[in-house]
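User: hey, got a sec? need biotin carboxylase folded
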Amino acid sequence: MIESLLVANRGEIARRIVRTARRLGIRTIVVHSEADAGMPFVLEADEAVCVGPANPAQSYRNAEAILAAAKSTGAQAIHPGYGFLSENADFARAVEANGLIWVGPGPEAIAAMGDKINARNIMAAAGVPVAPGSHDPAATVDAAVEAAAEIGYPVMVKAAAGGGGMGMAVADDEKALRAEYAKVRGFAERMFGDGSVLIERYFPRVRHVEVQILGLADGRVIALSERECSVQRRNQKLVEETPSPAVSPELRERFLAAAVRAGEAVGYRNAGTVECLLDPATGEFFFLEMNTRLQVEHPITEIIHGIDLVEEQLRIASGEAVEIPRETSGHAIEFRVNAEDPKRFFPGPGQITTWVEPSGDGVRVDSGYAEGTAVTQHYDSLMAKLIVVGSDRAEAIARARKAVADFQIAGPKNNLPFFTELLDNPEFLSGDYDTGIVSRMR
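Assistant: Yep! Here you go:
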């Protein structure tokens, strides 16, 4: 087992990784920016190293500073969490080149799945269903128009190097496509340093369903279970649940089999997620992307399987055999508690003057903040994840209502009022909803 671990992240995910590592007797080191010096994850680690100012490019994305911190503290391994450098193949290579253990998939798998066009072509060759779309980047707007004419409108204009819902736009006709192509290409060049654009068929009413996979040290790939992620704003998730209300046992087996094929196609190791779009009317699903890291919503999978995914990541990275229970129990829901306006979802940072977390049967909170800390404009607005579990969906929703009401936050804006509204929404309560549910509520 790894003996010392550097966590190259911040907030709730850094705190969560530290908690598991310390339970396993692993010495924990965190890196932090100047702005995060007093944050809970810094105070709870065995050792902390400041790697730069608040700007993430100079701290949490500063690969050289993070590697230097690992060397100076004698860290044996690096866990990247999610975001920042977690899906940066060059950083993963540098970690391994420096004789450190990378707690994640190999750089080759990260690189293969990081390019959305390359990823969909690999998946198609492996027999994983993919949506109609371009096999090569649309190098010009005219090429994009030509591809759209063949695919059929509406189309999704997508940054090939993007992820996490960023760099995506919908075009209903040629005029809209020409406008959106320029926007997406410009955004992709600024954000990802790669302006490649993918044109793909857009399905107006779909569900976003993903499967958690683990690539084991012995080379096998296993699929655990699916998560429903259709409650989204601006293509970014707000609420996830498992099992999906839309997935029958037969459909689940098809999802899991496709996810295993996806992992095997790139020799996947460690934790990852195969994301798909599901047409509830036909039962067809299509590969969307593979996230080559631990997902924000991993706790709901942990709860129904009775496992700790971070522990499994560390065991796989250490070369140990792991046994994952395939049986599941109960129904779990996760709410992303963000520092944002609950109506328009614009960021609302600020000093936290009140922070009271809910508790009780079936309630878990993974938080990155505490009273007296501040949510700044430098980082993602996620403050905490509220996770509830019940024996079935109805009990989980009942517990969620109480937990949301009991969660008290003052200072920054927060989206708890939106969750209160969602938990009374007939469409959500029915389980028959899709990715357009939030826009219909607004």
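Quick note: The chain has a mean pLDDT of 96. Let me know if you need anything else on biotin carboxylase.
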